[in-house]
Amino acid sequence: MPIGVIFAFLAYASFSVGDALIKATGPALSVFEIGFFTITLSIIPAVLTTRDERWRDLYKLRHPWLVHIRCATAIGGTACVMYAFTHIPFADVYAIGFLTPVVVTILGVLLLKEHVAIHRWLLLIISFLGVVLVIRPGVRDLQLGHLAILCSVFFGGVTTIILRHVAPHERRVSLVGLQVLYSAIFNGVLMLPGFVMPSLHQLLLFLGIGLVGGTGGLLLIAAARRTPANLVAPVQYSQLIWAIVFGALFFGEYPDWIAIVGLLIVLTSGLANVMTEKLKIVWKPRLFFFRTGL
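The structure assignment produced for this chain is given below.
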């Protein structure tokens, strides 16, 4: 197995551990407070490993408006994801979250004039039907968390489309640093009205979320540098397995057989979509606090 694929498995396992820790914080704290601490701490691995770029070049941008809009959509998407993880089952979050490629594909056609083969549209439709099996609207009671993760799918699609355009031209420190800076300001201001002093246990959870998320992002970048993206990208679907395992072990969430069938459909169609893609795959390194790409 290529070393990059191993790094990718470790990266997505790290992201899933971080997601489990977010869920462990529970709904007692606002998503803004959780976001403020975890996003700020998640920069630690990047700061410790960045050698080839200078942080004082943060605002030297070639596409400033697009970078700032991308920061805004990433912040909104992250807040929605955090709310979803603390309010609905793991498997539901991941199943709906994997609809992001559908939004990316549609926006890519509309905005970037990308060509998408018929078989890929069919696979995206099948993936959507798998998500419907998992959440079963009209049969199961849908909660605000489901709406939140749906909103994050839209935000994630916009973030990814913008990133495809600006990533080759912008510094890594700009894409990472501005996201952290704006997220800290946004979450820091909004958390103040309902601020609750975190306990030592919660602070340790925040530190763990930041460290594993930031480390996962660096592992993913290392994977991209060593192995072609078409081998690394499918590994993201391993998170569906982690969702079932962590949900059952730590949160007492046991998907029924219909939901498991839906998850398998999402997994199979998603893998087939990635493996049969004829377009050039644009690698999107993901740090924890971006959710959808760096």
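Interim note for the steering committee: The CA atoms of residues 56 and 173 lie 9 Å apart. DSSP finds 13 helices and no strands in the chain.
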